[in-house]
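re: the backbone from monday

yeah here it is again, tokenized this time
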């Protein structure tokens, strides 16, 4: 009896300690509160909308009054050739972004950390961070300003004596490189923040001891730098691979025009749901891709835990 009372008193004390800690850090929790509310309202409260994937949804009947059709929407989607092409395009863009955009922030971080002039280092970091704060629609406008028929490149060509203007944005072969290059430019600097934090946390004495022992620059990278960076690199890689069915809707939709025939999953979902009013099909598409992304994330996380010992959970 005494042991149970003592255990209950300990639990009460632990609970009071947690509440006291929360009260002491209340200003920090207030900073996090807007993000929590945003996730709650726009992620969790909208979850009942998933039911539309199994209905012939009518906007005036609502979810409660619409007819249930089971997996008919999924069958219709899987039989569409346009969606298969869009999935292929999405995966291709994601793999291209993974191959070209994922390693670049790592290399840039290694270059920045070696800069000794602090003012020059801050200038480099500031210039590389700036594109991240531009909206994708603003970036689309900049692309049209530079590569458009009346853009800066064509103006410069005409000034050099070219006979006609080239419509770069109307050429199919330029679309994918433009998407990948713009994504790299926009996210390169911002993606270095985590890597720079990891590099700054490495004890300088490790490098000094390795240098005394005769280790060269690449040996220090191999045995000191990369082992310290590897956990965060693996976590980022898991999320990137898990999001392989995702795409940059704003950029792709903003650069589409009558001359470009390149659809991805998000543009198909938008055109099916918003433009054609087939809300059930668009929700079903999103649900299928979300389930595939979840399975892919769990699979990659399991493989990473087996191979490197690092995972999301």
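seq for it, each position gets an aa:
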């Amino acid at each position: 009896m005494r042991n149970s009372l003592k255990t209950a008193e300990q639990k009460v004390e632990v609970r009071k300690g947690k509440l006291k800690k929360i009260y002491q850090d209340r200003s920090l929790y207030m900073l996090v509160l807007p993000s929590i509310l945003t996730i709650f309202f726009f992620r969790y409260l909208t979850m009942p909308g998933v039911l539309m994937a199994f209905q012939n949804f009518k906007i005036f009947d609502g979810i409660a009054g619409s007819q249930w059709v089971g997996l008919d929407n999924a069958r219709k989607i899987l039989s569409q050739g346009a969606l298969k092409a869009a999935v292929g395009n999405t995966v291709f863009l994601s793999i291209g972004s993974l191959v070209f955009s994922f390693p670049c922030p790592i290399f840039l971080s290694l270059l920045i950390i070696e800069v000794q002039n602090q003012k020059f280092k801050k200038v480099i970091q500031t210039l590389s961070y700036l594109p991240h704060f531009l909206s994708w629609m603003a970036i689309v406008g900049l692309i049209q300003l530079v590569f458009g028929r009346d853009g800066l490149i064509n103006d410069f060509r005409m000034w050099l004596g070219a006979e006609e203007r080239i419509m770069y944005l109307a050429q199919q072969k330029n679309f994918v490189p433009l998407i990948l290059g713009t994504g790299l430019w926009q996210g390169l600097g911002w993606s270095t923040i985590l890597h720079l934090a990891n590099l700054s946390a490495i004890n300088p004495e490790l490098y000094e001891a390795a240098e005394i022992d005769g280790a060269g620059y690449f040996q220090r990278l191999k045995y000191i730098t990369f082992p310290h960076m590897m956990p965060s690199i693996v976590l980022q890689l898991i999320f990137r691979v898990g999001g392989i069915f995702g795409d940059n809707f704003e950029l792709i939709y903003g650069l589409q025009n009558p001359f470009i025939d390149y659809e991805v999953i998000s543009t198909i979902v938008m055109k099916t749901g918003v433009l054609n009013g087939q809300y059930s099909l668009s929700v079903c598409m999103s649900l299928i891709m979300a389930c595939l992304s979840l399975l892919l994330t769990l699979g990659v996380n399991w493989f990473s835990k087996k191979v490197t010992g690092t995972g999301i959970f």
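The mean pLDDT is 86. Residues 1-45 form one domain.
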